[in-house]
Amino acid sequence: MNKVFLTGLVLLIFSGFGLSQELILMEKIRTFTKSELSSIFFIEALYNVDVYRIHYTTTNTFEQKDTASGVLCLPVKANTVFPILIYDHGTVSDRYDVPSFGSYEQSISAVFASFGYITVAPDYIGLGISKGFHPYVHPESEARAGIDLVLTVKDINTLENFHYNDQLFITGYSQGGHAAMATFKTLSESSELVVTAVAPMSGPYSISREMKKFTFGDKEYFFCAYLGNVLLTAKYVYPELFTDLEIEDLLKPDYAVMVRKFEREEIDLDDLNDQMIAKLRQNNGKVLPKRMFIDSVANAFLTDDDHPLNQALKRMDVCDWKPEKPVKMLYCTNDDQVTYRNAVYTDSLMRANGSETVSAADVFSSGNHGTCFYPAAVALRTFFWQYQEIGTVGTTEVVNSSFAIWPNPAIDVLCFKNVSMDDPEREIMVRLYDTAGQLLDTYIIMANGQKKSSIDIAHLKSGLYIIEISNENGLMEIQKLVKSTN
Q: What superfamily in CATH does domain 11-206+318-391 come from?
């Protein structure tokens, strides 16, 4: 893994046809600096990040060979071994609004890489360079796109300073939360990759129950296009359930025409949503998505569990199974697009199935779907730091910090070592977080030439905490602290 990679070089690699994943193209897109990433996300970055566009082979919805795209984001740090992280993006408006084509979520992927993860972000089947229809919230194809991207990346041996360990973290937001859970579930049933920890954010894990109740009731719901997209996917992926039913047999004519235009990519998802809202207001005065459906279909959908739509939605669920590895679902109670009940209900099902590794947390109770992402990402960062291991090439040891805390575990007092006094004007700040990502205390341990060598932690409960150390130039490093009682 130490061959020199020439900047800007495009690699075309064709390997044997026996594998489902092959690297087709790797192309460097850009480098994000720490300051750029910190300004994008308002969280201090630890590393500069190089971003590469990846084209690779995978299997599509019908298990046929397909070519897909995504990005690979590498933390820039010589002789350092990092974990791998899959970041699954949220719902997009059209096929090119994806990480490999420079969407905003490309920078989000880079932000996660700046925390010390080799991050891959698949575009998904039917998006990016992948041809055909995108099977929206289809678990199997979402999972396959991410898994095969990781397997492809692991075979790359042409990048200098590209070193990974056996850890794998998975996350995603909105549709990406569903994709992250689908990937986790798929890997729990196979031996392709071993998962370390998972943190889906604001995902529709329970489509057949919680999302159905949330979107198909008497309360206005202003994201009608999701239903049209799910309907197209159900018909596309599960044709055996809809042998005698076309879109026109399910939706009223005005809405069927709109959905068909979206299917043909004559309009994007945002256009579809705007048109649906306008027509619902014109016809009904309120934006009630169930009014888009033929009345008899809507009634059957609400009352008959064996209706083809209900059977299809159940197949899209990723909520009813038993995780064995740490998973934390992050949500906001006031989410207006994906109800928080998805996380709460999924948590209850998984616990009932015997899982002892699952949890769910409200990270910002008043946050809507747009404002929930930032606090969820902050909580995710702290959750993953409990398990993250960064090493040095050629050893099995975790990287030793240049800024030492001692003792660890600690009981009453935490001491600091290696605090430089070279610059008397230098200020060093220590922030203490719990594993939920909540900031507990902030300490200035060096300022105006005065150094504080210890802090009192006797008031803390026993358990794991995260120490964030920064100076006036930004985040310096992260450490884990175990608080003990004896």
A: Alpha/Beta hydrolase fold, catalytic domain (3.40.50.1820)
